[in-house]
Structures are given as C-alpha cells and as structure tokens.
Amino acid sequence: MIQLEPWTISTTNAQGQEKLIGALPDLLDEFERRSGYKVNRRITPYARVEADLEGGLIDFSVMAWGPARARYANRGTDFGPLDFGVYFAKGTTAQKYEDLYPLPLCTPLGLKVDPRYDIDPAMQKDLSVDYTTCVKKVVAKHGSVGVAGSLGTIDVIIDKLNVRKFFGERFLFRVTTLSVSWSQRAPNNPEEARVNAIFKGMVEDGTYERITRKWFGKHLSYFPRATSPSTKPARKPASR
Fold it and tell me: Of 38, 90, 117, 193, which is least surrounded by CB within 10 A?
C-alpha cells in the first residue's frame, strides 16, 4: 500500500502500534469480511510495489492502472475512474502538453503520472515525497507552479490544508481507473477470479462509492471530471 493521503495514512493506536487508515484500508476491511481472507498490509514505496508485482512477491495491489504494468500483472476489477494531470497555482495555465515545458511541476517521487510525462527528460519535475509536500511548495512559491498526479487526491489535500485560494486551473493528462493489479507470478493465482469477484460485488452494491465518499467527501462521486485539453474548472459530477 502506498502512503498517499487519503488513500492510506499511517497512524499510531493507543498501544503505540502502527495503524493504517484511509480509503484503501477500509476497502480491504470489507474485503476481509466478505472473503474470510486475511490481507497482509504494509506501507511500500510506489517503485517497490511495481517490483513486488513483477517478481511475484505479492499477489495483488489496488492502484491506478497503467498500460506498462500489463507486462507482469493482470488487470482485475475496475473500481472507478481516476483523473491524472496537473493542478496549477492560481495564474498559471496551459492549453497543450508543450505549454508545460517551461513550468516546474512538483511530482511525488516514483509516481506514474502519464506515460509521456513520466519519461520526458525536458519536463521540469520537482520530485517530492508526497502530495502534501507538493501542495505546500506551490503555496510557498518554492519553485513549483503546479502539482502533477491524481487530481482528485490533490483536491482533497488542498482543502485539508485550507489553501484553495492559491490554486486555480487544471490540465488533464489521462483518465485511468483504480484497479486490482494481480501479479502474473503470484503464489496464490488460483484465487485470482474469486478475489476479483468479491471486489466487483463491492463496486456493484455501492460499497466502493460509500467508502470513497467518506474519505474524499465532495471530491469523489467518482472523481471530479477534468476537461481536456483545456484547463477550465471541472464540472460538477452528475448525480447518481
């Protein structure tokens, strides 16, 4: 599990032991209740999750799906859409990809934002530990003029820090999905179909939406829709 608030947050319980909270721990709690399985949870850097999937050291992860992962992982249940792009400081704008080149953009270390952006050596990526650090850098005007990554997640951090007035337009790279990524070398491959079926049931009966609404509030039903390639404010999601 990647420690990105509000997906996964490391806290300490009354006994001084680490306790993981957030949207993904809640999702896994419900999965364990329905399946009878016990999921081994641990905070892992993004790059390590990819390596563990490729090497078969873990059965699966729940994360944003990327096409490069198809080489070593099967795409399982899709939970809902995820918008990836750039959240700009107020007054900064971009109409097309090439407009981003002169703009320093804070990007969480190891995060796969967009296939083109990730490998583009001309992009000015200010690599930082997480979204919270990136948002603070933009507010403090410490180089970066935008935050690259999951727009819905960045939205939550902006409101948590009460810095909405410092941010303006958004630029959309791609829309992907939060999905089960099942290692093709997983030791428990016979369980793949059952695991995906349980997660699919959680999507179909509204459990996934209930959990994400709890942690993302007004920002997720599913994720706020961004416009592309323009940077106009996202429209309010249609009611369900």
Answer: 38
